[in-house]
Specification:
By secondary structure, the protein is mainly α. It is built from three helices and no strands. The protein is 65% helix and 0% strand. The protein is elongated, with a radius of gyration of 21 Å.
Length: 120
């Protein structure tokens, strides 16, 4: 992947308006759903792009405090948090799977070889 070929858009701007908060949270949910799809298809380029958009939205949402959350935006925030948690677990499982495969490729011990007594 060539980092120079990716178009970086400027971070989204934040204003303390509750409508902006709800809209930004909806955007975050959409980005998290895109992230889940990219994880499912193992699309590294899309994961890179989605991560960039996710970070930009985090920067946009950062100025909003808990006092800005009305019942609707609180539910949207909970939904975004749940989606992010699921994506984090999937990413961790994928990373563990890759690590296990790399370890298996580098292992001297084969499935049907005799056991080395030094490892018991």
């Amino acid at each position: 992947m060539n980092l120079a070929s990716h178009d970086y858009s400027p971070p989204l701007t934040a204003s303390p308006n509750a409508n902006d908060l709800s809209g930004n949270l909806r955007q975050m949910i959409a980005v998290l759903e895109e992230e889940r799809q990219a994880l499912a298809t193992l699309d590294a380029d899309e994961l890179f792009e989605v991560s960039h958009r996710k970070l930009a939205l985090c920067d946009t949402l950062r100025p909003f405090g808990e006092e800005a959350l009305d019942p609707q935006s609180r539910e949207l925030a909970k939904t975004a948090q749940a989606l992010n948690d699921v994506n984090r677990r999937v990413r961790n499982l994928l990373a563990a799977n890759v690590s296990a495969r790399l370890e298996a490729l580098g292992s001297v011990q084969h499935t049907y070889s005799s056991v080395n007594p030094a490892h018991i």
